Amino acid sequence: MRIVFVHGWGYGPDIWQSVVKLLGDDIAYDLVDLGFSGSENIPVGHYDIAVGHSMGCMWLLSQSNITWEKLVFINGFSRFSASDDFQEGVHPRVIDRMLRKLPKAPVDVLQSFHQLCDPDGKTSYQGIKTPDLSKLVWGLNFLRDQDQRLNFPEESSYILADKDDQVVTEAMTVKLFEGNSEWTEGKGHLLPLTDPVACSSVIKRVVADL
Prior knowledge:
This is AB hydrolase-1 domain-containing protein. It holds the Pfam family Abhydrolase_6. By secondary structure, this protein is α/β, with parallel strands linked by helices. The chain has a single domain, classed as Rossmann fold (3-Layer(aba) Sandwich). Helix content is 36%, strand content 20%. Strand 2 (28-34) and strand 3 (40-41) form a beta hairpin.
């Protein structure tokens, strides 16, 4: 059993630590590092399960060198920015504003985003100590410009979302996945950190379904 995990924008692979521990020792896994802290690790190959958080979900859909049998989306999406046929998304000007501010104050932009992800301070995440500006810029452009809705494999996917997520709202999730989701409540946008039990439970169910 091989699983690959992908984190979202402004975070790193360490968000999966508690989830991985709950899965047990007989699971082989790789942790993608998209490089926001300066170190990048992107494996290739076929996996039994691919698990993405936030932007990591859409990133998985954009890849050709990583394949899988089953897909797990946690606080995820196949499109992020709003469009004529996806008005529930985040307006591109919000992302553009972050892009303008990022070169001048990357730490401030990250702190603001982390606060939005965890407004009640449920996690002890310390943030990225040495942010890689070029990778953060790439990530925001990716969030603004990508549309992977046509690549989403509905029949082999599992969706875990939170009703109080302020980044990926309930309306976004319902629109993208037609209500075919499992929900938590009051846990926010960082379910791998705020509710690793719910995350691991979904993954264990997928393992059982293989």
